[in-house]
Structure formats: structure tokens, C-alpha cells
Amino acid sequence: MGKGRFPEWLKAKYSVNRQFDETVSIINEHRLHTVCQSADCPNRGECFAEGTATFLILGNVCTRACRFCAVQKGHGQPLDEDEAERVADAVARMKLDYAVITSVTRDDLPDGGAEVFADVIRLVRLKSPQTKIEVLTPDFKGSEQSLKIVADAVPDVFNHNIETVPRLYPAVRPQADYMRSLGVLKKMKTLLPEGKTKSGLMVGLGESSEEVKNVLRDLREAECDLVTIGQYLSPSPDHISIVEFITPDQFKEYEKYAYSIGFSGVASAPLVRSSYHAKKMIVKQDSRQK
Fold it and tell me: Is residue 110's pLDDT more than 60?
């Protein structure tokens, strides 16, 4: 897994406490998937112990074969008719004041799963009116109709990850398109003017610092508000390898640069992931704007 021994700064917190057990119990009881488990997130222990999780909808099998992701690949599964209801019930049981919903990519569905995202947003709002909702969606093949379905449900934050620099797309995510992903974020800004847009990228795949800064500039040109930057960690020898470990100082430089070009919220550190401490990012952004 990866490039030799991990540096000290990549050691994740892991604690099992009563809250951890309760989080796992609620997820299992409601027969739900989480990206924390399916993507083998290094922060899973910390987040579960704090009573949070990122829900993974539309099944547990992705129809794309990105080379960085641990989620199972294959043919899309039949839709689970009461999945949205169970997610909303779990959010209420966990008493989340900030919920993050993501999904596998479902290129086999006409709308890419947009209607299921909308159903989840509406049901969470119904059962937990005070909960802020962030959705982390696939690109829906760039479909404006699918984006509008999600926007009409009015999530508080719309997240779509750019993932890496354009030069590395053929090796890292060959079925995606850099300009299409930028277009998704730009279009959502017009469809959801009161909401926040967010994106994230991995580093350590062989990109240069200037390429990262170019991506950050492209995201700002697409009016993206929030950005996350984290170290890529290879899930297995079958996935694309780590080229280098980016130092904490370099992550700080990326953070400083992102703020300097107009991002209102930035999380840049080795263990940062798209939904890691998502609520704290929004709180920090709000405090900076006051």
C-alpha cells in the first residue's frame, strides 16, 4: 500500500468508544453504506468516535473504474426503494446537525441517481429540519437536467471533486473529464446561487505545485467557494501508486494560496478528505466572513 513507510504526519487518530459503537450500530441497523467504510477512509475511526459518518447512497458498486478509489467496481445494483428513508432516519437517530451524503457513480441510470439525491435531501429536511446538508455528487455525465434535480432540493453545500490535475486524468480517472467537472461546479453555482459549492483534490500523484495552483485558479474561475486538499493514499497494490508524500508545510502553502485567490473555506492537510470535518469547515468559513 503506497510508497514505503508512512511519515509521522500521516498517522490517523483511531479510537473505539461508546459513540463509535453506537455509530456503527445505527449504520448497520439501517442497512446503510458509508464512504468511510467502502472507501477505506483513514479517518473512519475518528469520525465514528465523534458520532459522524458520510452516507454512501445508490448502492455500493461504482460503474466507473477510477484507479485511486477503493470502492467496489462493476455493474450498478438495483435501486433500493426505501434507502432515502433509512438515511433520513439514521441522520435523525444520530442527531446530526450537519449531514454529508455522497454516492457511487451510476452511469447506468438515466439521471445518474439525481432523483435519489433529491429524495434524501427532502426526507432529511423533513425529519431533521435543523440539519444542514452537504451532497458530494458524481458528474452526472454533465447533465444539466440531473444537476437541476439536485439543485431544486436545495442542499446547503454542493460538492463535486475535481480529484487531480488535468495531466493525470487519463491515469487516475480515465472515464471522467476535467472540463466537464469544472462545468458541473460552474453550472451548479447558477442553479444554486444561495448555496455553497465545494471541490477537492488529492496530491502526491506526481503533480507539480504549479499544476495544483492552476487547478485552484480554475476552480475559482468556476466560482467554487470551498476546497479540500489531502494526501493520496493507495488502497492496495492494484491501485495507482503514491509518487510522493507531500509535507505539512506544502499543504500550508496550498492553503495560503487558495485563500489568497478568493476561496472562502480551505482545508489543506495530509489527512484531509472531502467530507472530513465538513461542518467545522463551514463554521470556520462563517467566522472568517464575519
Answer: yes
